[in-house]
Amino acid sequence: MGLFTGLVTLPLAPVRGVVWLAEVLQEQAEAQLYDPGRIAAEMQAVADAVAAGEMTEDEAAEAEERLIARLRGDP
Hints:
Layout: H1 3-8, H2 13-33, H3 36-51, H4 57-72
C-alpha cells in the first residue's frame, strides 16, 4: 500500500478494525458451537436431565438430533 493510498483510506481504519473484530468473534463463536467436546458435554447434560426426570424422552430425542446436526456441521 502506497503512502497516498494509506492517507486516503486512513478515515476507514476504524471501520476495518470493527469488521476484523466481528470476523474474529464469529470464528470463535463457530469454533465453540461446533466443538466436539462441548457437544459431548451437552449430550451428557441431556442424558442427566432425562435421568433426573427434568426432560421427557421426546424432548431429549429432539435435543440430541440438534446436537448431532451441530456435530456434523449442519447449520
